[in-house]
Each structure stands twice: as structure tokens, then as C-alpha cells.
Amino acid sequence: MCRHLFVLLCLAAPTIAIGQNSPPSNKQSGSVQTQMHNVRYHFSDTVVVEIRSLNGELVPLGNNEFPFFDDKNSFSLRISTAEMAIDSSNLANVLNSYVFARPHSPLTELSIIVANGRLKLKGKLHDKRDIPFETEGILSPTADGKLRLHSEKIKAMHVPVKGLMGLFGIDLGGLIKEGKVPGVQAQEDDLILDLEQILPAPHIEGKVVSVRIEGEKIIQIFGGPDGKPMKNIRGGNYMAYKNNRLRFNKLVMDDVDLILIDMDANDPLDFYLEHYKEQLSAGYTKTTPDSGLRVFIKDFNKLHPAKASPTGDEKK
């Protein structure tokens, strides 16, 4: 095991420069290509998604010339093609912890279950004295790549209500119109969810082209006119990065050729960006003849099994 991974990286890889005193790069060409396979990705302590396969790029944001692993707001994940899954409890966590977590939010205590291929959303109308409500419908992609929940049944206090606006009234509609609930729109009896806005950083960019339900999981296929299926660069569970420049900790890697590889191929690579240094330190690294790095990392949920899964998956 390598306890001083970053020191070894400096010694082993001549293409890595210490610190930030590197030649500037053109931001237009600063994106780093990425491919992921069988990754359980933690966006936060309460939000986890499954990345079954993904091809895309890390795009530097703001004044950053290249992505910086230690700052999740320094880049976005632009998806070309992908298959991703989120279960109902994690989607509810997104709504409770981010979308409707603001003071005086009109909706509170939201929960989601999947039954017979339909989503059931339950919660309370905070601005209406915490009246309980529920809506049931089907998910589908919109023409511009968002998620549409078409409500077929809507109730408040177990009594049928005519339409979402009849349920929410002007409160939610006004907040959405004013942009105070980013990533959510109401269109007649439909709720439109924009994954680019509702998920925590690092934010994703991509268009959902199809949706299906598997048990409690919502499977989203990302693609578009520029999306081209790509062959996996290797077997197993991994996150690969290639081309341009990438910074992590005090290191800057030029002409990136970096692959993070799961030490245990028997289950998905459990990855948490905010704790990636711990995962690296628990693993080891190898250098390829052409100065690429192959970093074998330990699953986050095996470092902290008591808190690694908001859905209790570690008990299964």
C-alpha cells in the first residue's frame, strides 16, 4: 500500500508539475476527456447516483483554465453518452436537500416511491398549513433533454384535486416564474425537472433521451446528435481522464493519462469527490511506460461503511 501517494506520483511521473506555475492553456481546449464505467458516484452525503457507463468531458468553469479535483465548482461534467440510475430515495433527497431546501419553501417533507412503473410523489404544502398532498404519474424525457413527470392523479388531504395549479395555487407558480426554485418548472399537470440544475456540484451538462424504471431505480439514457457510443478502454470499474491538463491536490498533470481503478472489482467503484484523497491514500499507483498513471483506489463505502450509503445499500 502506498501511504504517500502524492510524493510517489511526483517521483514517478515526469509529466506532472508541482504547484500552479504552469504555462497557461487555451480555455477553449481545456476540457479533459473522461470515461466512466460501473461507478457509484456521491454528489453529497445524501445524494448518490449510479454511473453505469459514461463518455464526456470535464469542462473548466469561471476563471479556471483546467479542472481542479479539489474544487467541485471549478468544472462541470459534460455528457456525450451515458446510462445513469438514481433510486427514488436519492431523488427525494435531491428535492428535499437542494431544490426545496430554501427558507419558506412551498413544499416540504417530500418522499418518492415507484409502483407499477409510476412515480408517487408525496409531501406537504408548507404555505397552506402543511396540508398533505400526493401526485402520481409517469416519467418521460422532454424534447430538450429534461425529465417530465406527467401527473395522472393529484390529491390534497386524500381528496382529488383538479390539476397541479389547483393543488399548488399561485405560490409555487410564482416562485418558479421568479427563478426561486431553479431546475423545476410547472406546465399544466406536469413537473419538469432539469438535472443540470437540481443535482449538486459538480454540475452535469447533458440531455436525457430516454427513461425507464427498474424496481425503485430511474434509469436515464443521455445522448444527442453529437453523442457517439465509445468502446470501453478497459474492463472493470474505473474513471478515466485523458488529454489537456488536470489538477488534483498540489499536482498538475499535463497531457493527462490518468485512470482511477477499483481495487475490488466485485462491486461498483464507490467514489466521493470530497473524500477522494482518503481513497487514493488507501490505494497504490503504477506508472505506464509512456508516463500514464494507473491509480488503484479503495471504495469510499469501505473506508466509512457506517455513513457511506444514504440508502442503506451496504446492509444488503
Protein described:
The protein is α+β, with helices and mostly antiparallel strands. It has helices at residues 5-12, 88-99, 164-177, 195-198, 276-281, 300-303, and strands spanning 16-18, 32-42, 48-60, 75-87, 107-115, 118-125, 131-141, 147-156, 159-160, 184-187, 190-193, 204-205, 207-214, 217-223, 238-242, 245-248, 251-254, 257-262, 269-272, 284-287, 293-297. A hairpin with a 5-residue loop joins strand 7 (131-141) and strand 8. The longest helix is centred in the middle third of the chain and has 14 residues, at 164-177. It is elongated and about 70 Å long. It starts with a helix and ends in a 13-residue tail after the last helix.
Shape descriptor? elongated
**Quick one: how many beta strands?**
21
Q: Quaternary status of these chains?
A: single chain
Overall radius of gyration:
21 Å
Q: H/E order of the elements?
A: HEEEEHEEEEEHEEHEEEEEEEEHEEH
Query: What's the tally of helices?
Result: 6
Cα(first) to Cα(last) distance is 28 Å
Biggest sheet statistics: 11 strands, mixed
Poorly predicted regions are 1-28
Helix proportion range: 10-25%
Structure class: alpha+beta
Strand content: 35-45%
Mean pLDDT: 83
Provide a brief overview of the structure.
The protein is α+β, with helices and mostly antiparallel strands.
Keywords:
disordered N terminus; eleven-stranded mixed sheet; seven-stranded antiparallel sheet; alpha+beta; elongated; about 325 residues; single chain
